[in-house]
Amino acid sequence: MMSLAKLVQTEARLFARDTTSVVVGLTLPMIILLGLGAVPILREPSADMDGIRFIDYFAPSLIVMSVGTIGLTNLPTVMAGYRERGILRRMRATPVHPAKLLAAQLIVNLVAALVASLLVVASGRIVYGIPLPESPLWFALAFVLGITAVFALGMLVAAVAPTARAASGIATVLFMSAMFFGGVYLPRFMLPDAVARIGDYVPPGVQTLLDSWNGETPAALPLLVMAVVAVAAGATSARIFKWE
After folding, report:
1. Are 178 and 64 spatial neighbours (Cβ–Cβ below 8 Å)?
2. pLDDT digit string (tens) for 17-60?
3. 176 FRET partner, CA 20 to 30 A, in 29, 123, 191, 206?
């Protein structure tokens, strides 16, 4: 346990020293929300969204961005880079198994994704009065299943990518897809119905976040899909992950 704790501390320091990870992963979604809220019309109730303000509607999509940035770009690239540089191979000759480094990376990035999401929620609430999730338990369940599915996919990328460059390329495609279907590039009410419905099942499942945010009970099927993706991708990455 002590070795894992030290690895977590080390990985956390490395994450904090990476300006790109901190700015893009932790603060960019919050900055986008604050910037959008500075536009007066986006703080006014909209008839297109049943009287909901745009910034209230868009906040869950920025949580999707927070989770996706860290789980689909940072995590797989770092782990593939460790393998490419031989760090994982060298660790196998020490008492500290490389699996502990993998665990440390997961812990640091999960905490980072949680912090980034909390920054979006807290800044929106404090600065613009964006309501908190009206169904907090459903929201917590949707968030946990969604983030687990995203990180499982990130680990799958890390497992199959031979180099950091390859991991970055694969992760970028997955990230852009998640952002598109998650309503980050275009709000979901502007997407074709078929595209929006597909987005319900693309991790981390923005519709379940939206429903629970607005006090509705999320549909069971998207939650089930998030769980299945998490288990399937996680089990596959564990089976095929190469330390060298």
Report:
1. yes
2. 888 778 888 899 999 999 999 999 988 887 777 788 889 888 98
3. 123
Q: How is residue 145 written in tokens?
A: 């299943």
CB 205 within 8 A of CB 223: yes
C-alpha–C-alpha distance, residues 75 and 158, integer Å: 8
Q: Specify the 3-state DSSP secondary structure of 45.
A: strand
Specify whether the CB–CB gap between 223 and 145 falls below 8 A.
yes
Distance CA(153)–CA(166), nearest Å, equals: 15
Q: For the whole model, what pTM was predicted?
A: 0.88
Rg (CA), the chain: 18
Domain ranges within the chain, ordered by starting residue: 2-240
141-161 burial string, b = 16+ CB within 10 Å, else e? bbbebbbbbbbbbbbbbbbbb
Enumerate the β-bridge partners of residue 172.
none
- Cα gap 229→114, rounded to integer Å: 20
Which amino acid type is present at position 107? I
Q: Are 190 and 204 in contact (CB under 8 A)?
A: no
What's the pLDDT tens digit per position in 99-133? 777 788 888 889 999 999 999 999 999 999 999 99
Judged by DSSP in three states, 73 sits in: helix
